[in-house]
Each structure stands twice: as structure tokens, then as C-alpha cells.
Amino acid sequence: MIDPKYRRERMVREQLEARGIRDQDVLRAMRTVPRHLFVQEALASQAYDDRPQPIGHGQTISQPYIVAFMTELLQVKPGMKVLEIGTGSGYQAAVLSEMGATVHTIERVRELYDAARKLLLQDLKYGRIKLRLDDGTLGWPQDAPFDRILVTAGGPEVPKPLTEQLAEGGRLLIPVGERRRNQELVLITKEKGELREERKGGVLFVDLVGQYGW
Ligand code: SAH
């Protein structure tokens, strides 16, 4: 296998910079996180390809460009408290942690939760990531509010608990639409208690399942 560091450099250059990702902190984070450790071993050689990869249980790790695009839109600053719904492989959580955020991430599939927990905390020793096995559409009320909230699965609507747990001046990003088709990335901002909604383009994510999901 070609040196992973070289493959990451190429991924950043050809898939991210070439398509307009400019945030240097996002590019640095994605140059750093060893994405090949977040995919199934048999797929490690394809980990840096320009597409999502299966991670088991019918779920996927997002395409590198989508991770970069969403992370850039979130405008994460060091020290911010970020909530992610849909830990999956743990890759997006690692990228957020490399940006200097304190990450809270929720997954509902036990096997994925267990694997991400081991990889992030034991193997890679990320110190600022908290994981939880639960329905993430309910958010994480005990640790709210959050400066940033990122949902990495597609739902029918924006879950109410999440807008309630968004801090003043906060940003929330979620794919909304139909199941596995016709989804749009929705950016919610909260200013003086008022929510504003912007559409940021078409995306395709696996289902957000749960009380405020499918
Ligand atoms: N961010 C992940 C990719 C997520 S795939 C990564 O970097 O690899 C979407 C994940 O959301 C799946 O693992 C799925 O099980 C999870 N999911 C779906 N609905 C959920 C819910 N209500 N709460 C928590 N996790 C959920």
C-alpha cells in the first residue's frame, strides 16, 4: 500500500483544494486524521478514494469532500463544544477534534459505537471526544448548549431538541429530505434566540433513525 500520508496529501489537493475548500484548519485536520484506520480493513487501500465507503450495518463513512464541506460550513473554532449525531466510524469526530473542538458524538448502533470508542480513545488517544450510545435526535441535554451541531444522517425534518440545544450564535448543519434521495443540506443559525435557515445544496446520506427521525 502506498504511504497513507502521501495519499492524504493527494486527497486534500485533488478532492478538497481543487473543489474550493479553503479553510486551512479543515485542510490541516484532514491531512492529519488517518482515514484508512476508519474503514473496514479490506477497504483500507480505497480509504482515500473520492467516495463514501461501507462501514458495516448498512452505514457509510462519508466521502472526504462532504466531510470537508460540512466542517468548513460549521466554522469550528478551537475550544468550541460540538455535538455530532451519527458517530459511524468516528472519522468526522476525529476531524472535529483536530480542529480544536470538544466533541460530543452519539451513535445508535452498538457495534459501531464500540468500534469508534476503541479507535478514538484507546488506539488514537483523542482526549476531547465523548461518545454516547443513544438516539441522537434527542440531543445530549445534560451537556447542552452546543456551539455547533452536526447531523451526519438524513432526516425528514430538523429535530426540535437539537435547535433547543443550540447555543446563542450557534450553527447547526443537517441533511433534510426524503429517504436516501432528494436531500438538501440545511444550515440553521441562532441569533438573539431567532432561528434562520439556509440551504447549502444537495447531498445523500443514510437514514437518521429515531424519535425525531425516520
Ligand atoms: N459521521 C460518520 C458517518 C455517519 S453514517 C463517520 O464519520 O463515519 C450515519 C450514522 O448515523 C450511522 O452510523 C447510523 O447508525 C447513525 N445514526 C442514524 N440515526 C441515528 C440516531 N438517531 N442517533 C445516533 N446515530 C444515528
What labels would you give this structure?
single chain, 214 residues, alpha/beta, Rossmann fold, seven-stranded mixed sheet, two-stranded antiparallel sheet, 6 helices, 9 strands, 28% helix, binds S-adenosyl-L-homocysteine
What is the topology?
Layout: H1 4-16, H2 24-32, E1 53-56, E2 59-61, H3 64-74, E3 81-85, H4 91-98, E4 102-107, H5 110-123, E5 129-133, E6 146-151, H6 160-164, E7 166-178, E8 181-191, E9 194-203
Parallel strand pairs: 3-4, 3-6, 4-5, 6-7
Antiparallel strand pairs: 1-2, 7-8, 8-9
Helix pairs in contact: 1-2, 2-4
Residues 59-62, 85-86, 88-89, 91-92, 106-109, 112, 135-137, 152-153, 206, 208-210, 213 line the site of S-adenosyl-L-homocysteine.
Keywords: Cytoplasm, Methyltransferase, S-adenosyl-L-methionine, Transferase
EC number: 2.1.1.77
Active site: 62
Mind explaining what this structure looks like?
The longest helix has 14 residues, at 110-123. The strands form 2 sheets. Strands 5-4-3-6-7-8-9 form a 7-stranded mixed beta sheet. Strands 1-2 form a two-stranded antiparallel sheet. With 214 residues, it is an alpha/beta fold. The model has no long low-confidence stretch (mean pLDDT 97). Strand 3 (81-85), helix 4 and strand 4 form a beta-alpha-beta unit. Helices cover 28% and strands 29% of the residues. The protein has a single domain, classed as Rossmann fold (3-Layer(aba) Sandwich). The site of S-adenosyl-L-homocysteine has 25 residues, from strand 2, helix 4 and strand 4. S-adenosyl-L-homocysteine binds at residues 59-62, 85-86, 88-89, 91-92, 106-109, 112, 135-137, 152-153, 206, 208-210, 213.
